[in-house]
Amino acid sequence: MTRYLLFFLTIIIYIPKISSIDSKSPIIFIPGSFCSLLEVRINTTLQPSCPISLHNRWIILWLNLRFFEPEFLTCFHNIFKFIYNSSLNSFENPSGVETRIIYNSINDSFLNDGINIHSLPYDFRRGTNKTLLSFNNNLKQLIELTYIKNMNKSIYLISHSTGGSMILFFLSQQSQLWKDQYIHGWISLSGNIAGEIDNIQNLIQGSLSPILTRDIFQTWDFFAWRLPEPMIYGSERIIIKTPTKNYTSYDMLNFLRDLNANELSLIYPQASSILASLPAPNVNTYCFYGVNISTPIGYISKSDQFISNQLETIYGWGDGEQDDTTNMSCQLWKKTMDIKYKLILKGFDRVNHLALVGNDYVIEEIDQIIFS
Ligand SMILES: *[C@@H]1O[C@H](CO)[C@@H](O)[C@H](O)[C@H]1NC(C)=O
Ligand SMILES: *[C@@H]1O[C@H](CO)[C@@H](O)[C@H](O)[C@H]1NC(C)=O
Ligand SMILES: *[C@@H]1O[C@H](CO)[C@@H](O)[C@H](O)[C@H]1NC(C)=O
Ligand SMILES: *[C@@H]1O[C@H](CO)[C@@H](O)[C@H](O)[C@H]1NC(C)=O
Ligand SMILES: *[C@@H]1O[C@H](CO)[C@@H](O)[C@H](O)[C@H]1NC(C)=O
Ligand SMILES: *[C@@H]1O[C@H](CO)[C@@H](O)[C@H](O)[C@H]1NC(C)=O
Ligand SMILES: *[C@@H]1O[C@H](CO)[C@@H](O)[C@H](O)[C@H]1NC(C)=O
Ligand SMILES: *[C@@H]1O[C@H](CO)[C@@H](O)[C@H](O)[C@H]1NC(C)=O
């Protein structure tokens, strides 16, 4: 989990590297999970675990290291999770908690021209139709605006990790005519397009203990959205083994129930259907992955109840975080995408999930795509 914190810094270093070049095509960057800034406003009367000093003013929720200090940690746990509303069948902010995304944070601090390069943040805890469609509206607006500001030059989308899933859903919702006009190409770095095996571990153990607990994660619909996709992971491969059960990607609903993540299991059917067909992007597409690094490809739980310290990881190959299989989503488009669009897959030897952003070979490759 510290790697996410490190990664946040990487992003900040990476963007100016590209921006220093006077690009022919404008670029819009969609970051990975945990790489957007969120703000919160708390009514401490309704959230008494939060100190009164935080009452009713906008403060940074993520990434705010102060919240990790012992006296703020309980407050943080209570406000960073969602509460399930059964009449809406959705997760909502707890009462007395409002959150918002900080737009332009990267733009304002690190990019001077604001014309050629943009980055669009999002609430990485979410993964429902409603939240993704609202991201789509923002992205569409930003693309159209950037296009006009750059004398009608079409855009390169660059994404990292979950940003790739965001873009694929976005593209799936646009008409071909619109895409042909506005999108020059999409470069996906370490895209978790077919979901991630290691999200299972996050749901069982949380992350960066004691900061992101499993109780928090089990209220993020993101995790219902981005579990391994059946279309790619299939019904043969055992992803989790317990003393009495084997779970494949087709058994994720049962896994959530057996984990006792009941509310998340109620969200799973709709969230997991959003990208289930892995639609072809139908734009020039470049899928870049790190390869040849030991990576979780499955788990063995010694307890049927998924007690968090009784989890053993099975290792195979990937980028250290995502296993190789997730690249099969791009392979699939060789068959399903209109051949008039480029489709290029490339593995980068021993470049890990986070290092792919900012890696010199990758940047060189991106330069070649954008300037050729
Ligand atoms: C906070 O919540 C209390 C109790 O519901 C309410 O009376 C008060 O008006 C709220 N304060 C603000 C600033 O919204
Ligand atoms: C659930 O949402 C409905 C509709 O917004 C609202 O009226 C109700 O108070 C919510 N329930 C809870 C428990 O917050
Ligand atoms: C980025 O910053 C520039 C200059 O500060 C500003 O004009 C522009 O509106 C910002 N970008 C977006 C997406 O608003
Ligand atoms: C850009 O496209 C719009 C319509 O899509 C058109 O009205 C405008 O004249 C074009 N601008 C340039 C600089 O080509
Ligand atoms: C789980 O799969 C293994 C093969 O990996 C098999 O030997 C075992 O019998 C299966 N267990 C159950 C409960 O189906
Ligand atoms: C989510 O939205 C898409 C596009 O509007 C729609 O095709 C799909 O049926 C929706 N899924 C659910 C589960 O509502
Ligand atoms: C894609 O994954 C397959 C195995 O699923 C692996 O053999 C191949 O090297 C991977 N390709 C890239 C470009 O990562
Ligand atoms: C991965 O490692 C194998 C064995 O060392 C090597 O043959 C292969 O070229 C590597 N893959 C990439 C994409 O570099």
TrEMBL record:
Keywords: Signal. GO terms for biological process: lipid metabolic process. Residues 1-20 form the signal peptide. The keyword Signal applies. The keyword Signal applies. One of its GO terms (molecular function) is O-acyltransferase activity. InterPro entries: AB_hydrolase_fold, LACT/PDAT_acylTrfase. This is Lecithin-cholesterol acyltransferase.
